C-alpha cells in the first residue's frame, strides 16, 4: 500500500504536485516594468530643463498606468484583482510575524505585506503625478515642494519594496523578481491562470513607447558647436564655421 495515500484523511483530495504555473498575466507585468522605467526616467530628468518634456511625459505615464491598474485590479485575471490579495492590517502583521519566525505563509499571488506596499505605491504615484502637474502648470511654488516630497516618499517606498522582494525571495526560495518577468511560479496547477492576455500588453507597450517617442522628438535639441551661426546678412559669422583665411 502507498504510504502517502494511507496517511491522508478519508475524503481529503490528494495534494497536487507543485508545477510551473502562470500567475502574472502579461498586462500586469508590462504595467510593473513600465512603471519602473517611468519612475526612474522621471527621477533622472527631474533637474533638467532640457528634458522637462520627458519628465512631464514620464509623470503622465505613471498616472495613466495607475488608472489602468485600478481597472485591471477589478476586471483582470485572478491574481491581479485587488480582491485576491488586499487584506486587513492584521493579516499583513501575521505574515510579517511568520517571516520573523522562519515559517512564512505561502501565497501564490501577492502576500498581505506586499499588498500594503502595492497600494501605498499606487497612491503615492497619484500624489506625485498630481502635484507634478500642479507645479508644471504654474499653480504656485507649494506644488513644487509637495511634488518633491512625494517623489522622495515614492523613492523610499520603492527601496523598501525591492528590499522586501529580495528578503522574501530568499525566505521562500523562489525568484520573485524573475516571476514578474516570465509570469511563472511554482504552485498547484489549479492556482494558475489560463491566459496571459498578450494583446492588451502589446497595445499598452506600443502606446507608451509611442507617447515617449513624440515627447523625445519635441524636446529641445542642444546646439551643435560646429553649426554656423547666421548673421543679419545671411552669411556665417567669422569663426563660426567659415574659413579664417
UniProtKB/TrEMBL annotation:
Record has Cell membrane as a keyword: yes
Membrane topology: Multi-pass membrane protein
Subcellular location: Cell membrane
Stretch list, region Disordered: 222-245
Predominant location category: membrane
Record-level Gene Ontology MF annotations: electron transfer activity; heme binding
Keywords for the protein's UniProt record, in alphabetical order: Cell membrane, Membrane, Transmembrane, Transmembrane helix
Domain Cytochrome b561 bacterial/Ni-hydrogenase residue range list: 23-183
Transmembrane regions listed in the UniProt entry: 21-44, 56-75, 113-133, 153-171, 192-213
Name listed for the protein in its UniProt record: Cytochrome B561
Originating species: Burkholderia diffusa
Amino acid at each position: 500500500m502507498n504510504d502517502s495515500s494511507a496517511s491522508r484523511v478519508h475524503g481529503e483530495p490528494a495534494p497536487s504536485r507543485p508545477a510551473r504555473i502562470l500567475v502574472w498575466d502579461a498586462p500586469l507585468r508590462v504595467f510593473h516594468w513600465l512603471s519602473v522605467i517611468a519612475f526612474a526616467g522621471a527621477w533622472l530628468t527631474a533637474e533638467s530643463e532640457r528634458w522637462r518634456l520627458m519628465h512631464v511625459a514620464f509623470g503622465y505615464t505613471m498616472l495613466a498606468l495607475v488608472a489602468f491598474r485600478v481597472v485591471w485590479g477589478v476586471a483582470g485575471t485572478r491574481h491581479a484583482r485587488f480582491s485576491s490579495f488586499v487584506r486587513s492590517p492584521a493579516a499583513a502583521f501575521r505574515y510579517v510575524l511568520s517571516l520573523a519566525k522562519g515559517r512564512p505563509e505561502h501565497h501564490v499571488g501577492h502576500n498581505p505585506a506586499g499588498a500594503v506596499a502595492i497600494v501605498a505605491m499606487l497612491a503615492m504615484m497619484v500624489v506625485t503625478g498630481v502635484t507634478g502637474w500642479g507645479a508644471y502648470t504654474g499653480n504656485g511654488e507649494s506644488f513644487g515642494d509637495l511634488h518633491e516630497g512625494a517623489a522622495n516618499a515614492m523613492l523610499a517606498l520603492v527601496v523598501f519594496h525591492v528590499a522586501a522582494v529580495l528578503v522574501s525571495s530568499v525566505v521562500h526560495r523562489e525568484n520573485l523578481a524573475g516571476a514578474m518577468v516570465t509570469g511563472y511560479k511554482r504552485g498547484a496547477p489549479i492556482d494558475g491562470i489560463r491566459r496571459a492576455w498578450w494583446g492588451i500588453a502589446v497595445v499598452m507597450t506600443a502606446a507608451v513607447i509611442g507617447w515617449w517617442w513624440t515627447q523625445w522628438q519635441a524636446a529641445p535639441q542642444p546646439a551643435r558647436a560646429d553649426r554656423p551661426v547666421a548673421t543679419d546678412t545671411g552669411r556665417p559669422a567669422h569663426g563660426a564655421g567659415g574659413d579664417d583665411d
